[in-house]
Amino acid sequence: MVRGHRRDDCLRYVDWIPPMSDIKRNYTREELDRMSDDELARLGTELDDVTVAYRKERFPLANDPAEKRASRRVATLFALSVVLGLAFVAVYLFWPWEYKHLGEDGLWFHTLYTPLLGVTSGLSIMFLGMGAIAYTKNFVPEEISVQTRHDGPSDEVDSRTLVALLNDSWKTSTLGRRPVIQGLAGAGAVLAGLAVVLPLGGIVKNPWKAKAMGIQGDGTLWTTGWTLHEQGEKVYLGRDTGAIAEEHDGHYTTQGVSRLVRLRPEDLDAGSMETVFPMTEEMVNDGDKFDAKRDVYEEHMHSIHGPRNAVMLIRLRHQDALKAIPREGQEDFHYGDYYAYSKICTHIGCPTSLYEQQTNRILCPCHQSQFDALRHGKPVFGPAARALPELPISVDEEGYMIAKGNFIEPVGPAFWERRS
Ligand code: FES
């Protein structure tokens, strides 16, 4: 193996390798104990069939001003790595990262969060690498070595001489007498490592920690926006109009147009499906309660973004509805020909978006699970093993569709605490 020069040069130095037969290979423990580190290092290179053909110290003279300049350059690179590593940690811990919607105060700072994490961690690692390269070029001796390859296991003399060689590398690198560079390089390496490890902290959460109950549930896996019904709230089935937010007085809202609106049974054709979201009374801004100046956009979007909120409201064709077989204990969950099933697939949580009118099957496009809408959302094909939870529904005195209870089981995929 040849390091540090072209093949032509290598050939020129091959003559310098002592013949292998001249090298003594067997040493007693006492003989090895009597040898100095330098002697062991030299012996190690020879036993490894390596000849150091050329070695030159970078700064052979003590107190060379050029060495001090080089030392400052390297220290500056490691210091920049440390500063940027610290900047990364500071951004990760203290920069405002919570969601801001368009037009909200602080949006600009919020949008800088991810780019700043990338820039600070990237530059920290880059300066650490540049420092290591600069150190090698400036302080590790120039060396040309030639090695002949050979096979076979290592014996004791090899392992002892290897340690000596590593000691020799440490000494000749002069890193041992440069504590500032040592400290900066070490700190830079630790901080660059943190830039990789720290973001994993974002996925460490306590799954049992409940917040206040809201339109997305309380943050635990067994609650949804529909759980508000258990707290005495009237919860409507809100239909998503898809209204796009626009700027009103420097603030992005759908003011004047409601994003979620209440739904009446006659809004749905027989054999069709509509995705609905929970909507409490104070979120209503339609029909006789419509106020063009009221702004409920944010509440509506929170309901739509609730990870377990989406429900498929299906109006079966009447002749099909006559064949429906309800699950025991859920006989009165439907309202006439209308059935409401959680849209969150019980396999691994994709939205089961497709309803096939002819077969009354609900299809999850992720892994092709199929559920039978006539048999309480029971899985009939694919990897899903649980039925889609059914939401009990009814119609209020004004003719709007409402939830008349909460799901009686958690929605979505399996997890440890789930009993159903
Ligand atoms: S997530 Fe629905 S089939 Fe896999």
Automatic annotation (TrEMBL):
> Gene3D superfamilies, alphabetically?
Rieske [2Fe-2S] iron-sulphur domain (2.102.10.10)
The protein's superkingdom reads: Bacteria
* UniProt membrane topology term: Multi-pass membrane protein
Indicate the family of this protein.
Answer: Belongs to the Rieske iron-sulfur protein family.
GO MF: 2 iron, 2 sulfur cluster binding; metal ion binding; monooxygenase activity; oxidoreductase activity, acting on paired donors, with incorporation or reduction of molecular oxygen
Q: Does the keyword Nucleus apply?
A: no
Upper classification of the organism: Bacteria, Bacillati, Actinomycetota, Actinomycetes, Mycobacteriales
Where would I find the Rieske domain in this sequence? 336-402
Organism in which the protein naturally occurs: Corynebacterium resistens (strain DSM 45100 / JCM 12819 / GTC 2026 / SICGH 158)
Checking PROSITE patterns in the record gives: RIESKE
Record-linked InterPro entries? QcrA_N (IPR045603), Rieske_2Fe-2S (IPR017941), Rieske_2Fe-2S_sf (IPR036922), Rieske_Fe-S_prot (IPR014349)
Gene Ontology, cellular component aspect: plasma membrane
Q: Which gene encodes it?
A: qcrA
List where the protein spans the membrane: 74-95, 115-135, 180-204
* Compartments it resides in: Cell membrane
Q: What does this protein do?
A: Iron-sulfur subunit of the cytochrome bc1 complex, an essential component of the respiratory electron transport chain required for ATP synthesis. The bc1 complex catalyzes the oxidation of menaquinol and the reduction of cytochrome c in the respiratory chain. The bc1 complex operates through a Q-cycle mechanism that couples electron transfer to generation of the proton gradient that drives ATP synthesis.
Q: What is this protein called?
A: Cytochrome bc1 complex Rieske iron-sulfur subunit
Major subcellular site: membrane
